[in-house]
Amino acid sequence: MVYGELGQYLMELQIKIKMMCFWNKLVGNPDKLLLFKLFIRGNRDIPWMDHTTSIFDETGLSNIWDGQKYINPDLLEVTIKQRLQDQYIQKWFSDIKNLQEGNIIQNSKLS
């Protein structure tokens, strides 16, 4: 993918980071936000919350979601960003390796 070759990351990563920062604000101000009140009352049919949970799961930070506690926003942002970037780089290298292996196999069959 061209993004990896240029040292760029997908916009999806930035969106996920923003979602996590918003979640942290939500947990930090539970009395003021309607979304938090809906969550506490058991109204969990909000797709945003499902996606937030899946981001925590894929980054290995499920314990933060389970605790529902406010943490330092800078620490959360740096941690989530680093883990998502690491996962992206690993996937990118894996895709390149698989593509190269496919090309080698295809070229050997043509010879």
Q: Helix and strand layout, with pairings?
A:
Elements (H helix, E strand, L loop, with lengths): L1 H4 L5 H18 L5 H7 L6 H12 L3 H6 L5 H38 L1
Give a description of the structure.
The protein is an all-alpha fold and 111 residues long. It has one domain. 77% of the residues lie in helices and 0% in strands. The chain contains six helices and no strands. Helix 2 packs antiparallel against helix 6. The radius of gyration is 19 Å and the shape is elongated. The mean pLDDT is 76.
Annotation field: number of helices: 6
Mean pLDDT over the residues: 76
Q: Approximately how much beta-strand content do the residues carry? A: under 5%
Task: Let me know the number of strands.
Answer: 0
Percent helix: over 70%
Order of helices and strands: HHHHHH
Tally of individual domains: 1
The major β-sheet equals: none
Q: Alpha-carbon distance between the termini?
A: 28 Å
Structural class: mainly alpha
pLDDT < 50 stretches:
none
Radius of gyration: 19 Å
CA-based shape = elongated
